[in-house]
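COMPLEX REQUEST
Ligand: heme C
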Amino acid sequence: MNKNLLYVLAFFVTVLALQCTVDHLDNPLDHKLRTTLNDLSPSGSYEHFTLPESHDYSNIPQDENNPLTAVKIELGKMLFFETGLALAPLHDESLEGYSCGTCHVPEACFMPERVQGIADGGFGMGHNREKLDSYEGNEIDAQGVRPLVMLNLAYVPNTTWNGRFGAGGVNTGTEAVWEGETELNHLGYQGLETQNIEGLHLHRMVVNEDVIDTLGYRQYFDTAFPEMSKEDRYSPLGASFAISAYLRSIVTNKSPFQQWLKGNDEAMTDPEKRGALLFYGKALCYRCHKGPALNAVEFYSLGVKDLYQTGQAFATGPDDPRNLGRGDFTKDPADNHKFKVPQLYNLKDGDFYFHGSSHTDLHDVVEYFNEGVPENPNVPEEQIAPQFHPLYLSHSEMEDLTEFLKHGLYDSDLQRYVPESVLSGNCIPNNDPLSREDLGCE
Ligand code: HEC
Ligand code: HEC
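STATUS: Structure written out below.
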């Protein structure tokens, strides 16, 4: 090649490289955000907020009784969507019709696309899922709070809106109230392992040696749990361990904010960066939404409405003990109406926010925090979190904060956590006739 041309090329490459470096140094938002995060981080470094890679098992928080392995995760990934486990419905129409994924729909941020999830006794997908006529009154499987999101659960040692599952963490010292379903806490596991045993039963699914063989999962269970007794292995305990491992592997590490934390300054737009600065600054969101998952196992009342107040929910009402949040579990009135601080990734795909599905738009949620006025008259004033107060954000500040929530915290590739099929060959996540039609399984 002509030597002069080479020099000219080299010159341009150098200029371009310099230009990039200058741009990089030039954007004061990057520097400001990094300094802010360093200051707020318990470790002194913004890296504290970084989520692990999905296959970096040693850096994903887990239960020492159930170490993460690839085969457990693969098995759990199928079981979560396995409609073949739906073997204990109240009426035959729902047999093999539903799965965990019925109420935790991946495309809807693992929420149900309605104010409330319906598994046994429902038909159809998402927004169109309805109660079957053959199910009377409260027979359907539906709970008095909105389903939680299945993202970044590795950072949730105590599960559910009131944190009742899990032997350690915030439940240390609450042993006296472990009764009914929470008796399982005595097994000594974290929230996921504990709750998912109960979840299989509650959601009318069956796991035993026969079912495992019929569906073809024996080899998976054997490879995943060689040291577990056969009695535990082919039971809801083995299934719960696999599902828990899978759920811990679901990490939103491809979101722009996470890319930015790993050094790609171009990953976030300026409005998203300004939004992040508000989140970690003037809007004070970081006081409750902490760490890599922007969550906390802490309980607060924001005075939001309960599910029955939407007027669209089954099997709940003003006397539903779940309305009391943490207080329903601890029986301490000081905990009444207080709910766990949820993670904040990928909420753009959800359609309902807060434990009672009282808001349907993320900008509305930001406005709710900005106004700082409780919407639920049933919640006594003294229960409301002192951190819930007017924030005096301007219109454009609220826009920026919403941008950060909607796009900065959005991992657009969650399909990597959804199996292509399950061993039964059934349709997923639902397998009732109408869903099969909706999903193109016919
Ligand atoms: C009928 C709808 C429905 C079905 C089916 C369902 N869930 Fe849920 N899920 C919920 C609701 C509602 C909550 C919140 C419960 C609460 O706070 O008391 C929840 C919460 C959870 C949580 C707690 C997450 C956290 O952040 O604390 C986990 C884990 C979970 N579900 C796993 C499962 C698994 C595993 C299955 C299948 C065995 C399943 N779910 C099936 C409705 C459902
Ligand atoms: C006092 C602690 C606290 C502060 C401060 C706080 N949050 Fe929250 N946040 C919570 C709790 C608790 C919930 C769940 C409340 C409920 O549903 O009853 C929640 C729920 C949310 C939700 C809905 C999530 C879902 O799954 O439905 C979003 C979005 C959110 N917060 C964003 C923010 C933003 C943005 C800020 C700053 C303006 C903020 N939060 C400040 C505690 C807090």
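REMARKS: The CA atoms of residues 17 and 23 lie 10 Å apart. The two ends are 61 Å apart (CA to CA).
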